[in-house]
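REQUEST ID: PR-0412
SUBMITTED BY: lab tech R.K.
PRIORITY: routine
TASK: structure prediction, single protein chain
INPUT:
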Amino acid sequence: MNLASVLANFWKWQYCSRREYCSRVLFIGTVHTPRVND
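STATUS: complete
OUTPUT:
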């Protein structure tokens, strides 16, 4: 486990405390991540 993973998990916990934020973060992450190759 590297520092980036820890920070990412901590960030997710902060925002996933509310479902609306969690779904937004997951949606944005899923939509934008594959777009890097485009």
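NOTES: The chain has a mean pLDDT of 65.
REVIEWED BY: pending
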